[in-house]
Design a protein that fits this description.
Blueprint: H1 9-12, E1 25-28, E2 45-48, H2 50-72, H3 81-89, H4 91-99, E3 101-103, E4 109-111, H5 115-134, E5 144-149, H6 155-162, H7 176-185, E6 197-200, E7 204-210, E8 214-220, E9 224-230
Antiparallel strand pairs: 1-2, 3-4, 5-9, 6-7, 7-8, 8-9
The chain binds zinc ion (ZN).
Length: about 240
């Protein structure tokens, strides 16, 4: 990945990006459990506290394993070596995911997810992207969260999801979002044609924009589509 420094980091982002407390560690956003080795260079890194960092780790383990199982059909079909290792070392997690798996009458495999855990991880990832790209530190609850398997989106919804809205104004001075605009104008391919930032092909892509609202969309494992918005007026 292109390494972009944010001039605003020290000015706007205070303390741990999740709880604003003292920082004693750094967080990769997205977390490395969602990526395979070798890791891309210059992964986004943000300040965090150890308590938040550790507090998310079990949820993230569940989240990463669930997505890989849902994507491949089950615990026995997992392809990512890292996830296979985690499931071997944690039979209780493997058993939980297996228990959540049902096969519908039409043969479709459905996983009953632990929604609170999924939501915690999705929010954490969205908060990290909002800080890294936009210098927007969002501690409040978002106004909208969508988490849905990509393939279940209807064609028009999929088209809408894949196309980032065109901002009516340029991003804030000093943010990474503005630097990405500047770089794409001089021709260095820092972003995909579609304006998605690809962290690792097939594993993780995202974008974040701020206008009246702050919107983050990301896709995990080319399987799970997530959208988080802060500041949207609900009708
Ligand atoms: Zn914290």
């Amino acid at each position: 990945m292109e390494h972009l420094s944010s001039y605003a980091d020290d000015r706007l982002v205070v303390g741990c990006i999740y709880c604003h407390g003292d920082t004693d560690t750094r967080e990769h956003v997205p977390s490395r459990i969602l990526l395979d080795e070798p890791y891309p260079e210059n992964l986004p890194v943000l300040p965090a506290c150890a308590r938040c960092n550790q507090g998310f780790s079990l949820d993230e383990e569940y989240f990463a394993c669930l997505i890989e199982c849902a994507r491949t059909g089950g615990v026995d079909s997992v392809e990512r070596p890292k996830i296979r290792r985690i499931l071997q070392e944690s039979p209780s997690l493997a058993a939980r995911i297996t228990k959540a798996r049902t096969v519908a009458d039409d043969g479709e495999i459905v996983f009953k997810t632990e929604d609170d855990r999924v939501r915690r991880v999705v929010l954490k990832l969205a908060r990290g992207h909002a800080v890294y790209e936009l210098d927007e530190q969002k501690s409040e609850a978002p106004s909208h969260v969508m988490v849905v398997p990509l393939h279940t989106l209807a064609p028009h919804a999929r088209e809408h999801f894949e196309k980032p809205p065109t901002p009516s104004a340029w991003p804030e001075v000093g943010t990474r979002a503005l630097q990405r605009v500047a770089i794409s104008m001089v021709g260095t391919p820092a972003v995909l044609d579609s304006d998605w930032i690809e962290v690792q092909e097939g594993q993780y892509r995202y974008f974040a924009i701020a206008e009246d609202a702050v919107m983050v969309r990301f896709v995990v494992g080319e399987y799970l589509a997530c959208e988080v918005i802060w500041g949207l007026d609900e009708d």
